[in-house]
Amino acid sequence: MKLSLQFLLLFTLLPYGAMTNAQPFPELPARFNGWSLTDKLILDTHQSLYDYIDGGAELYISYGFKNAISCRYTKEGQPEVTAEIFDLGTASDAYGVYSQTRDKEEKDYGQGSYYVSGAQFFWKGRFWVSLMTGETTEESESFLKTLAAFIDERITETGEPPAILSVLPAEELVPGGTLYFHHYIWLNSYYFIASDNILEIDNDTPAILAKYGVPEERIYLLAIQYPDSTKAGQAFASFEQQFFPGGLDDNTIKTEENTWISAGLYYTTIIVVFNGKEKTKARELLRKARDLVYLNQDQRSKIKE
C-alpha cells in the first residue's frame, strides 16, 4: 500500500459525535491512572468532521461515518494523549478503515489491532479506535496501552469482518495486505485501474484488493461482489471493453507491460488478477478464488434448502 497515504491516515485520524442504535460509545473516565480528561469533542455531521480533519474526512465518509468522540488526556510533565472512537455503522466498515492503515495484523486489542510508535489502533464491532500521543515517553506509551485495554473491555459488541474475505485463497496471501472498500477511489489509490469507475463500484458492491507473493513477484487479486447478476454483467462488460475488447484466451490476456491479467465473472462476483509475471500463476490464483466463490454459493444454496 502507498506509504504516503498510510502515514497521512495514521496521523490524521480524528472523530465524530452522537450515537445510533445498539451499544453507545463507551464512557471514558474523567481521571485515569493519574491522567485527566481535559477536553471532549463530539462530532456528528460531515461538516464538523471536515472542520476537525482538514483533508482527511473523505476516508471516514466513504466508510459510512455516523459520528465519533475525541477525548484529550493530560498529565503534568507528559505529552498529551488523544483517544478517538468512531462509529462507522457496521463491522465491515470498521474493518475497512483498519485495512487502510495497517500493513501487519496484530491481536492485542479488539478484533484486530496495529501499533506504531506513539499510536495504537484497533477495530471492534462497528467501532474504530485511535489512540495517539504527541511524543512517545515510557509513561505515555504505557497509558496508551492501558487506555486501549479499558476501551476494548467496554466495547462489548463484536461483528463479522466483510464476507468477501472468504473468496481470498490463503496460500501466499501477504499478511496485512488486504484492502476492503466500496468506493472506487480506493482501488485507484492503491492499484490504478482507470480514471473512471469502469467496474461500477459503489456502496452496494463490497470489494477487496489483496497482495500475493513476494515483492519481486507481486500479484494483486481484486474481487467485487454485486447485488445481482445484471449489475455484475454490466460491470464485467465495461471492464472487458477497456482491458480486452478482443476477448480473453482462457480467461487471460498479456498486457503491453508484459504482465498477465486473468479475469472472470462467477455468479455475481468479478475476480481479476493483475500483474502476473507468469500466465500460469495468474490463472492459478484466479482458479483458486473462483473455486471459493463456487464453494460459498453452494453453502448458501444448502442453507436455503
Biggest sheet record: 7 strands, antiparallel
Number of domains: 2
In the sheet with the most strands, the strands line up as: 1-2-3-4-7-6-5
Approximately how much beta-strand content do the residues carry? 25-35%
N-to-C series of helices and strands: HEEHHEEHEEEHEHEEHEEEH
Radius of gyration, in Å, reads 21 Å
Q: How far is it from the N-terminal to the C-terminal residue, by CA? A: 42 Å
- The proportion of residues forming helix, as a percent range, comes to 25-40%
Would you identify the CATH architecture of the largest domain?
3-Layer(aba) Sandwich
- Shape category: elongated
CATH topology of the largest domain: Protein Transport Mog1p, Chain A
Number of strands: 13
Explain how this protein is built:
This protein has two domains: 3-154, Protein Transport Mog1p, Chain A (3-Layer(aba) Sandwich), CATH 3.40.1000; 163-304, Protein Transport Mog1p, Chain A, CATH 3.40.1000. The protein has eight helices and 13 strands. It is of the alpha+beta class and 305 residues long. Helix content is 32%, strand content 28%. The relative contact order is 0.10. It has helices spanning 3-10, 46-52, 57-62, 91-101, 138-154, 184-190, 229-243, 279-304; strands at 31-32, 35-43, 67-74, 81-87, 112-116, 119-124, 127-133, 173-181, 207-212, 219-225, 252-254, 260-266, 269-276. A seven-stranded antiparallel β-sheet has the order 1-2-3-4-7-6-5, sandwiched between helices.
